[in-house]
Write a structure and sequence with these properties.
20% helix; 2 domains; Naphthalene 1,2-dioxygenase Alpha Subunit, Chain A, domain 1; 357 residues; six-stranded antiparallel sheet; homotrimer; alpha+beta; Rieske Iron-sulfur Protein
């Protein structure tokens, strides 16, 4: 798994982290327990008791602390064991790794790398349920596939014409046109006009603008809208003023989180701008998303199967892969830089008296 | 997996390959897509798009061609990419491997080795649904076991007495008698008289003759019939004239196709000769076959489990293994000869700019 | 898997080994077939036919013998093939390994090591259904976890306070008090007073005494009883006379059998002493056990998952681990001694003409 560690990964929907209920997720192969303490603090730590490696995510919140419910070791939010029932002294090495975590835009984000570099300004500017401008729905899917394959999918919308001809009603223009792909800070921007077509069950043809940023570690933030036919040409295919769109302005935030080598969790929200839709429209979009994202999952998991059956898999990029290639090069560069800087992945294991096996 | 590549492997029932509907199967570990083009041609090619390795078996037939339904690359029946949507030039290496394929005796056969050696005369002479002499039923089973174990089973009918005492009503004579086992071109022939016994729910004792060829790569073709008691002795246990059988003349064609290392697909047809049975008799035989082949599957998959749990598995052949031994030596010889002749298995992967992982 | 081989492992409940019905179980990674012959003898042998490695546990008992139901080889209870249908001579190497086996205390025990050392006196003194003093119920559970993790669990009852707060109604005293842990012959003894508390839905507080032996290879034998508050102190926390208990005297026998690397079978019985309960009380206890042992299975299998996700797992023992540590050291010592003495594990495979693969 070659993914940057110095990045904020989505671990959960904010709504799914109930107060004082521990929540386990594996990110980049590392089991992590999240909890929201009595005081409301979000804590993320290694999901592995120092004693006998039971998962703390099966534990019990006690105020600010978390107790392992196997033999009762109690952990402070800083990862230190503060109580071993029936034992007076606590060894100084009795401590699990903690992770920087924060809540923003309705997601719980966890920083997987060097804590000193965990800059909240690096959280991608997703749109959460607290944004008054949008009426959002949400969903998530677990993939039996490497996260990178999902990123690749999201970076090349030429697949819309084939994978999503039914769900999104995407025409072949998505495959035949090449979007503008622009490198940006920690990501790529993809912009595109689809001209003079009906989009997603709309009644009349329009010029459809869409733009998205795909950001480290794997976050897609997209908006767009429909304009009178002729708008694209009149703008010389440049950026329109979305506040002047006729209809169809929506926003979607999507995040791909690598769990294990070949599993990933995909989080998404979508909905209309408040002035251009309502709850009913939002639900319609979520129905389309459910169908479309199941189509992606089917082809990507099938792709993973073929890759697994291939001794020396090689790809052959096309001109539609510009975004994919730029983003994967960025990932590779960040991974290399982190390796050079010695970013600690998992700290050395605390050595007990006995190895387990 | 040590199997000859220069051989016709059964990939599907002809009836299951619907016009212009791609069909995927893995043979000898290689994912293959089959389709029957608009003009009726049967095409077999590598089930792996050159672009990002999505399976072409999830694609769409377009006349003679097959389109990958991930990003829309279009393939000619010769494996060459002829269209990349939105891209003018197509790299010359944009090509997948193709396989020789043909339809015969109701099966789709795929040649897994050197295309130059793909001689249709090497297709085993199975009996298909187009044969006016037989009234056939068909079935298939997927095994969680190495194909070779199924071949071994089919090459030694001494198991009938124990595995199929109920389904086939086989007596212990099948285990106690030794059939005549004769090496033939690309296989072995197994001939046997079971004398003076009731067979398969027949009313009266008879002398039962059976003969089968077991042919490369793993195809069993068997017939036989029942004669008055005394016939075997009067013929000095030689071949009878099946046209003079009292009753019970049937034909069964069976094929074992290695899919992955420890999975295989087993295809079979069976039925009475038209002058000795009808659809009702055919259905009765298919009911018996369903029971009997489930018995084989149970013991063979259990055998595979034990082999998997055995560090250095060794067998101890018996005198009943003559057919097994002859056939497996033939397989070994063909595999060695192919290795010596440099039969191309999979061609070297087309190198793209990036490896997948 | 580091477990002693010179030990009696529980293979089955006596009641589950029906006369002349072969029964398969894998112990220490070795497939074993058990059967009770027509004369009532319990036979344990390698579950792997010498011919083609089919499992003998799918075979047929014939008097004292067992016939492989693939091609009909017949085995004597000493493991020797005595018949190969249709073949006059039997190679002398046609023999499977046998294991010493016996029935005692309602369990079938199998000796996995050197047969010459298979001393029946080493069978742990469990309480079976033939014991007139107890009214027992029984159960078993299959674990997707290494047997050692279950042993560890049973050797440290501090987990009762956290894992079994509901089922057993265990207070935190189980975690805060340290039991007396005494090395004994082939095991450890764990003794404990829980003072002045209500235990397991009892009405009034009592002093609760419990004592168990945990014996090689992984057998727990526990009894205990409730006494008037003050008894523990009056005995200076020494052993009480269980015949003078007020109520709650029960006995439980439990056995952990390693099957494969990360699977185990857990057998248990429990019930009241006849003078202190009845069938109804026994059924109540079995209901509690079903709940409690499901709690153990959940945390232990979760622990196994975390261990599997940990590159170099290390534990950090606490003062509650005295029993665990003593027992595991004993196991290690026995394993080392056996290695030094050259205890035969599996004998060298009988070499046939052909290897299977």
């Amino acid at each position: 798994m070659r993914y940057p560690r110095n990045a904020w990964y989505v671990a959960s929907w904010e709504q799914d982290l109930e107060p004082e209920v521990p929540f386990g997720i594996t990110i980049l192969g590392e089991p992590i327990v999240l909890y929201r303490s009595a005081a409301g603090r979000v804590v993320a730590m290694e999901d592995r008791c120092v004693h006998r490696l039971a998962p703390l995510s099966r534990g019990r919140c006690e105020g600010e602390r978390l107790r392992c419910m196997y033999h009762g070791l109690l952990y402070d939010p800083d990862g230190a064991v503060v109580e071993i029932p029936g034992q007076d002294t606590i060894p100084p090495q009795a401590k699990v790794r903690t992770y920087q975590a924060l809540v923003r835009h309705s997601w719980i984000w966890v920083w997987m790398g060097d804590a000193a570099k965990a800059d909240p300004a690096l959280v991608p500017p997703a749109v959460g349920f607290d944004d008054p401008d949008y009426i959002l729905g949400k969903g998530q899917l677990d993939y039996a596939a490497e996260a990178r394959l999902i990123n690749d999918n999201l970076l090349d919308f030429s697949h819309l014409s084939f994978v999503h001809a039914n769900s999104f009603g995407a025409s072949e223009s998505w495959a035949r046109n090449r979007p503008k792909v622009i490198p940006i800070e920690r990501g790529v921007r993809v912009e595109q006009w689809i001209v003079g077509e009906r989009s997603m069950r709309a009644d009349a043809p329009a010029d459809r603008w869409s733009t998205y940023d795909f950001l480290i570690p794997g976050v897609l933030l997209m908006t767009g809208g429909s304009f009178p036919v002729g708008t694209a040409a009149s703008l010389d295919f440049g950026r329109p003023d979305l506040s002047k769109a006729m209809h169809g302005v929506t926003f979607t935030s999507q995040a791909v989180t690598p769990m294990r080598e070949k599993t990933a969790r995909y989080f998404f929200s979508w909905g209309p701008r408040r002035d251009m839709g309502d709850e009913k429209q939002r639900d319609l979009l979520m129905g389309i998303a459910a169908q479309a994202f199941a189509e992606d999952k089917a082809i990507i998991e099938a792709q993973q199967h073929i890759i697994d059956a291939t001794p020396h898999p090689r790809i052959m990029p096309t001109s539609a892969d510009k975004g994919v290639t730029l983003f994967n090069r960025l990932v590779e560069r960040l991974v290399r830089e982190e390796a050079a800087a010695g970013t600690p992945a998992m700290p050395d294991k605390i050595a007990g008296e006995n190895a387990v096996s």
